[in-house]
Amino acid sequence: MKRVCLYSMYFVLCVLCVCTMALVLSACSVRNDKQLGVDDRMSYESEPVTAKAVPIERGTSGSENEVTTPLENEKAARKGYNPEMAFNYDEHEDIEVDDNYVASLCAEAERELEVMFGPAEFYIRAENNGEDSYTINIMYNGEAAEFDDDELQQIYAYIGQEYKEVKLTDINIQSW
């Protein structure tokens, strides 16, 4: 009888250890997945981002397979640019404004505008006009998104904030 109790006690302890290990491993797996998500986003910073516009069908009737037509004139939800929420950079006199610095600003602005005004794809290039002044050309996919005057003003405000260390001659926004 004592042996049976001892064996059953060992069995129960083994089951508890296995369950505890399973919980610890699953918690580690979830934590690693979250960290990998951050690492994956950071690894894409140097790669060009392309967004594809996919029409969303709204509403269903009786069955899940039958989809009705999308609502007309429905605009995609966009974050937009809020100048009150803009991060105020400290003015640094040691920033060397050259073509490489302006190109890095263009890449960053492309990513930020795609986040703020998705699903549009943005392509931003700067032209050096000489004497450290630049013209910023912003092109976006007109088939993926259209902007009203308010949204265009938000884009101008964002570019003005982002490029405040750079002497800008002009900002051109057009669709392709």
Question: Given the helix and strand composition, which structural class is it?
Answer: alpha+beta
CATH class category label of the domain at 99-175: Alpha Beta
Task: Give the percentage of residues in beta strands.
Answer: 5-15%
| Principal-axes shape call | elongated
Rounded to the nearest angstrom, the distance between the terminal CA atoms is 85 Å
- The helix tally amounts to 3
Using only CA atoms, what is the Rg?
A: 27 Å
Largest sheet: number of strands, sense, barrel closure: 3 strands, mixed
Signal peptide: 1-27
Keywords: Signal
Outline of the structure:
The protein is an alpha+beta fold. It has helices at 2-43, 99-116, 149-162, and strands spanning 122-128, 133-140, 167-175. Strands 1-2-3 form a three-stranded mixed β-sheet, covered by helices on one side.
Notes on the protein architecture:
- The chain has 176 residues and is α+β, with helices and mostly antiparallel strands.
- It has a domain at 99-175: GMP Synthetase, Chain A, domain 3 (2-Layer Sandwich), CATH 3.30.300.
- 42% of the residues lie in helices and 14% in strands.
- It contains three helices and three strands, in the order H-H-E-E-H-E.
- It has helices at 2-43, 99-116, 149-162; strands spanning 122-128, 133-140, 167-175.
- The chain has a three-stranded mixed β-sheet with strand order 1-2-3, covered by helices on one side.
- Strand 1 and strand 2 form a beta hairpin.
- The longest helix is centred in the N-terminal third of the chain and has 42 residues, at 2-43.
- Residues 38-52 and 56-74 have low confidence and may be disordered.
